[in-house]
Amino acid sequence: MFQSLRGSCAPLIAAVLACWAATVLAPAAHAAGSAPGPAPPSSPAAFAEPTGKLTLGDALALTLVNSPALAPWSIEIKAAEAAALQAGLRANVEFGAEIENFGGTGEFGGAGGAEATIALSQLIELGGKRAKRRAAAMQSRNLAAWDYEIARMNALTRTTNDFVALLAAQKNRALAEELTKVAEEVLESVARRVIAGATSPVEESRARVEREMSRIEQAGAVREVNAARVDLAANWGTASPQFESAVGDLEQIPPIPSREALHSAVETSPSLTRWAAELDRRRAQLDLTRAEGSMDVSVGAGVRYFNDRDDAAFLIEFGFPLRFFDRNQGATQAAELRVRQAGEERRAATVRILKRLSRTHEMLLAAEDEVTALRDRAIPEATKAFEAAQSTYLRGSLRFTDVLDTERMLFELKGRYFDALVRYHHAVSELERLTGAPLAAARDHAGEPDND
After folding, report:
1. 3-state SS assignment for residue 254
2. Domain limits of the chain?
3. What mean pLDDT is predicted for residues 5-32?
4. Level-2 CATH architecture, domain 58-89+125-293+328-446
5. DSSP string of 388-406, one letter each residue
6. CB within 8 A of 321, min separation 6: which ones?
7. How far apart are CA 192 and CA 28, in angstroms?
8. Which of 2, 51, 288, 304 could staple 132 via S-S, CB 3.0–4.6 A?
9. pLDDT per residue as tens digits for the range 44-90
10. Are strands 115-124 and 243-246 parallel, antiparallel or unpaired?
């Protein structure tokens, strides 16, 4: 029987296969090879670990290219593009074969009255399902791109903050070295006065204690610099940094834009624009869900062989579901609610971002006031007081404890000045993360003058 089937029906089978290959498989292959969309991000390339002095621009460039935190997002975008490609493919052609009317009783005993059928069938999606499925997948890809942009801004903010922290640690190390040097000079002055009999040896002992405490603080400041270097290098995936130091002007403070200018700039920030992409994605998903409520059609064609007559004939199949009960109405309602939900989530995100922006803006203004007061008034006065205390003590008109008090006050104010600068620059980087642009761009957007 089967040998006869192969011989009699081979031309018919070949014709069916050729027809379906030309009309179904070729267009599907074309669609798979020409899926639209931007090129995926490139993979991180090998790089030479920086040596010598490192600028903020160097650190940011290294982070963008080699950040371990950004690599998964690049992969996610590629995965979303692959999912979009898959969503645009047609359903596969189905092959079916059956043998009936054999092995029974009477005239159907044995295989004399058997009928063998082979057929190819194709599901034809109606309602634009395939196009809408691909559109929804592409919106997911766009959302992944915005999530990558947010992750990129977060990575750059962390790098900037770590760079500022390293600059401050280097300043504190230099300050600790200066304090140790001053403590040694004070000790020498006190020792000479003790030898001359002008003061008590107890004061020399106190001066030695002060010097030792300064040395301890200096050693701690050196370790803080080493730890800050490791923190900074971790942003581009390095555990053992090779660069020597960070170079930058920690004391340069740019003018601060108004709160209104920042509120205007945040409207185009990645954190809010991402929600517009999310809303587009959910609307595309709603369109797809509605389309899935429409019926699909399955068509097929094949060949049937009649063993008892040694004849063959074509057959055509046609079918579709009768949507009496399930019209996808529940899923459609859920998709409509999720569109509304996206609007509410965007509103909540806007409130949350504006709240954080206003708080950070106030912190920035406070840090600016503190930096200005310390730099222009407190530190100059403390410097004069310490110099006057030293000269007065050498003339024997002031107690040594007063000299130590003025010395400590001066160096504590300098340390507080550096801390205020760190808070200032951290607030600046946070505002730039929230707005997605430098502060100068916010000023320019609002038409505010640059007061530098």
Report:
1. coil
2. 1-34+94-124+298-327, 58-89+125-293+328-446
3. 38
4. Up-down Bundle (1.20)
5. HHHHHHHTT-S-HHHHHHH
6. 295, 296
7. 95
8. 288
9. 555 678 889 999 999 999 999 999 999 999 899 999 999 999 999 99
10. unpaired
